[in-house]
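Quick one: structure for this chain?
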Amino acid sequence: MIRFSNIFLKFDGRQVLQNISMDVPAGQTQVILGGSGCGKTTTLRLILGLLHPESGSIVINGQEIVGLTERQMASIRAQMAMVFQGAALFDSLTVRENVGYRLWEEGALDNESIEQRVAESLRFVGLEDTLDKMPAELSGGMKKRVAIARALACKPKIILYDEPTAGLDPINTHLVSELVCRLHREEHVTQIVVTHDLECAYRIADRLIMIHRGEAIFDGSVDALQASDDPRIRTFLRPEEVLAEPGCFPHKDGGVRVVPPMSEKAEQAPA
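Got it. Here's what it folds into:
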């Protein structure tokens, strides 16, 4: 279980997150939605203990992590794995070496057990035939699936995803989304997914939270999100409806403004 309670965070005097609270029950998939720069990835860094809030509480599997030292965070991070937006594979290592890297580094398992974990994880993502390939030989979608295999090989209780479908074609987007769903159904992993991809979000989420300019403006189900009449949410979900008029731009409060065409601006300019 992951619980955020009244989290506030500033960068260089600028409020990045304000009064963020959320509960993620064990085994559920929480999606975090929001525009670029709203604080979504910052939330993942807080969970990993890479950033520290000004105030508030973050509890992971019953343990408060705010105020813990790096040494104390080690046992918390050991329960987690991260799937990065760019996959973050080591270019100089084979797929086998990438997937097993953390296990070999930790040294808690013998080589045969690690090899078995690596093979099982790659089989789960449908890439068991890529063991000896280099990352440069893989497509973008295959790299993302290898990154998921690497996360899975560590048997984590929590997996964090930063834009897992970014830059992927529809087929690979479907495959990655399906893997997230399978991990939920078959492995009962707690998952937090940061994404802009609404189709993916609707498919995988048990619950969603939407952040707008550092503030949580929605926390609930997919159906409740789609039914919301909050103009900020409507603009994010259906911009083609809200911003239909040419030159139409959103205001931070959810309203809209219309910029006149260049020709009209020229006519309005003083002589």
